[in-house]
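Much of the work behind modern protein science is quiet bookkeeping, done one molecule at a time. The fold becomes a row of whole numbers, each drawn from a learned catalogue of backbone shapes. The protein below has been through that process, and both of its lines are reproduced in full.
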Amino acid sequence: DTFLAGFLYGYCRNKAPEECLAMAVAAGTAKALKEGTGMPDRKDVMEILKRVKVVNVSERNILPFL
């Protein structure tokens, strides 16, 4: 799974959990946008990564939306 591969890419490079999650989202998104069964290009993942924002969502923050 490309999402997991993206997370592990960051983890193996001693990135913070938030950075690992951002890399996972970018890799998974790049794969979803790619036709076929191949892996996405690294440059595509890095371009998407620039637009990924990880925010802390606590129970207190989401209660108004429930």
Notes: Helices lie at 2-11, 17-33, 42-49, 59-62. The mean pLDDT is 89. Residues 2-51 form one domain. DSSP finds four helices and no strands in the chain.
